[in-house]
DNA sequence: GTCTATATTTGGATAGAC
DNA sequence: GTCTATCCAAATATAGAC
């Protein structure tokens, strides 16, 4: 009887190449813009001819989809600040975490959180990863006492506003990033006051 | 001696055609996306062949530039809410004005306020119009007592955050638009409290 | 000012040999 | 799995006749 290998060197190699292709695609997206990546240029940088890429991905959008999945997995798996039970501190720490993640890679933010690549929609599998990541955030905010949809909408607006301004008007800097703590103080003050008025418990 | 006409019918006609071309370009940008407009399609819709457009504009970017100038002029010339002297009310009204302007035409917002068309930069003339519009806003906020750069950065982040969320996650709806008044209350409360602490006059 | 014809570039994708 | 060769489509832009 023939021995059955527990590892498949061929598919390991294949996965490694796919990873390399996606890595080069990200590199290109960061320098030339997310919409400007081309199969020819990706192929050139990994030392292939363009058609060879089709052995690994069915289409250009399949590459975008792999990029989306990778970015979403990074968000899902990244270590989050520990919860201390002090609502304001936790809120500040978590928003710093979020804005930091978004602004450290504008191309990734564009792919994950904005709708800007014409004709690209993430696959159900990739989308599920991203939903899982956002769900972590939602649960955490709920533990802090923020579960009113309106309040969450206000909070997400502040988060994306700081992120967008940072990326658009001070890329690489920290002009808006450093406003996160103050913005959360403002938000927290507002929400707790409003909750008291409504006779609800403080978070 | 020959009579000298006070009007130049030829150049009037020419300007009218340029305006028509830009109008069709906007129409296309709104339906297909700002980046997706093509000279062929513009020409087709105005009843020309593509090369004929070059009699009116030197390049595709020149059309983008004319669009930019038109959008900036709309922002500059639009009637703004009257100032009442009540800082919070004026702030709310002005932010409603801004978010309304931005969200009513996502393509225009994208062209004027985001950097998303690869290779396009507005000309100095067009850019000056947009600067004049933003300057109106800056002056108005200064009259309300908001002139600290940090405070203005926080305010613009809230404004673009509400706008972006509205456009990205509820296009055509009002899920974030209707949070403007509350957001301004929150901001106002925060800033006045902070000013008092610093011993400065209330706005 | 508008047209036809065409240059030029660039992109995604496929066929088929090796 | 990789290559060469090629297809096909779309885009901006130019030349030159009318």
Name the pair of protein chains with the most residues at their interface, and give those residue counts: A-B, 32 and 32 residues
What's the number of extended β-strand segments of chain A? 0
Identify low-pLDDT runs of chain A.
Answer: 199-203
Spatial gap, N to C terminus of chain A: 66 Å
Figure out the total of helices of chain A.
8
The fraction of residues assigned to DSSP E strands of chain A is under 5%
What proportion of the residues of chain A is helical, as a percent range? 55-70%
Q: Which structural class best describes the helix and strand composition of chain A?
A: mainly alpha
Oligomer classification:
homodimer
Shape of chain A: elongated
Describe the structure.
The structure is a homodimer of 203-residue chains. In chain A, helix 1 crosses helix 3 (60-77), helix 3 (60-77) packs parallel to helix 6 (124-143) and helix 7 runs antiparallel to helix 8. The longest helix of chain A is centred in the N-terminal third of the chain and has 24 residues, at 9-32. Chain A has helices at 9-32, 39-46, 60-77, 87-103, 106-113, 124-143, 149-169, 180-197. The first copy, chain A, is mainly alpha-helical. Mean pLDDT of chain A is 94; it is low at 199-203. In chain A, 66% of the residues lie in helices and 0% in strands. Chain A is elongated and about 70 Å long. The first copy, chain A, folds into 2 domains: 9-57, Arc Repressor Mutant, subunit A (Orthogonal Bundle); 78-197, no CATH class. Chain A contains 8 helices and no strands. The first copy, chain A, binds a DNA duplex (18 and 18 nucleotides) through loops.
């Amino acid at each position: 009887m023939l021995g059955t290998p527990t590892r498949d060197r061929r598919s390991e190699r294949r996965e490694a190449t796919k990873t390399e292709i996606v890595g080069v695609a990200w590199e290109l997206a960061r320098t030339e813009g997310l919409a400007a990546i081309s199969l020819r240029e990706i192929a050139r940088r990994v030392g292939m001819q363009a058609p060879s890429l089709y052995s690994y991905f069915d289409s250009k959008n399949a590459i975008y989809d792999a990029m989306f999945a990778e970015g979403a997995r990074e968000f899902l798996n990244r270590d989050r600040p520990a919860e201390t039970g002090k609502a304001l501190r936790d809120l500040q720490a978590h928003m710093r975490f979020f804005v930091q993640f978004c602004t450290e890679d504008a191309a990734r933010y564009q792919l994950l959180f904005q709708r800007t690549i014409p004709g690209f929609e993430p696959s159900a599998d990739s989308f599920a990863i991203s939903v899982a990541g956002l769900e972590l955030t939602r649960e955490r905010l709920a533990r802090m006492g923020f579960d009113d949809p309106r309040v969450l909408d206000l909070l997400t607006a502040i988060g994306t506003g700081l992120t967008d301004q940072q990326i658009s008007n001070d890329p690489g800097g920290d002009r808006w990033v450093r406003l996160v703590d103050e913005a959360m103080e403002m938000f927290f003050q507002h929400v707790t006051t409003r909750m008291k008025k409504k006779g609800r418990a403080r978070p």
